[in-house]
Amino acid sequence: MNWEALTALSTAFTGLVIVATAIGGFAQIRQLREQRRDTASVELVRIFQDNDFVRAFDVVMTLPEDLSADELRSRGPEYLGAVRTVAIRFEMVGALVYRRTISFEITQEVCGGATVAVWHRLKAFVEAQRLERTHPLDLEWFEWLADQFEKRRYVTGTPARIREQNWKPKG
Q: Which residues of 96-119 are buried (b: 16+ CB within 10 A; e: fewer)?
C-alpha cells in the first residue's frame, strides 16, 4: 500500500467519523429537546397544584361568566387577588406554549377547559383594565391561549372519560 492509498483511506475514515459524530449529535439534541419538554410538562402540572393557585382558582370559578369589571371590583380584595394569581399563571403558560417550551397538546389536556372557563369569567375585567391602563398587551398570552383552545373546539369536544374509555397502557 502506498502513501496515496493510505491518505485516501485515512480521509475516507475521517469523513465517516465526522458523519457518525454528526448523527450522534443530532440524536442527542433530539433527546435533550424531548427531555426538556417532559420536564416542562411536569412543571406545568406543579404550577396548577400550588395551594395558593388552587385557592385562587376556586374563588375565580365562583364568578359568573361575563362579569363586568365594576362588579368584580365590588367583590373586594379577596377576589381581585385571586384574579391576579390565576390570570398571571395562565399568562405564563400561554407564553411558554407560544414559545413551544411546553407542548400545546399536553397543556390542552392538563388545563384546556380550565383556561377557557377562567377566561370567560375574567374577559370583561381584563379588557376594562387594558383600556384603563392604556396597556393593550395586558394578559395577552392568557387570552391567546384560551383562543387557541376554543379554535380547536377543545371545550366542546367529547370528555376524556368517554373519548378514551378503551385506552390501555403500553407494555
A: bbeeeebbeebbbebbbbbbbbbb
pLDDT band of 94, cuts 50, 70, 90: very high
**Residue with the three cell numbers 380584595:** 77
User: Is 32 part of any domain?
Assistant: no
**CB neighbours of 69 closer than 8 A, spacing ≥ 6?**
124, 125, 127, 128, 129
Give the Cα separation of 125 and 127 in Å (integer).
5
Q: Angle, to 10 degrees, between the axis of helix 77-98 and the axis of helix 51-61?
A: 110
Q: Give domain status of residue 58, yes or no.
A: yes
Structural domains of the chain, count: 1
Could you read off the pLDDT of 123-147 as tens digits, one per residue?
999 999 999 999 999 999 999 999 9
Distance, in Å, from the CA atom of 9 to the CA atom of 14, rounded to the nearest integer, reads 9
Instruction: Give whole-number Cα distances, 132 to 32, 73, 79, in Å.
Output: 44, 14, 19
Segment 4-15 shows an average pLDDT of 79
Q: Would 98 be classed as within a structural domain?
A: yes
- What is the Cα–Cα distance from 148 to 171, expressed in whole angstroms? 33
Report how far residue 128's alpha carbon sits from residue 104's, in angstroms, rounded to the nearest whole number: 28
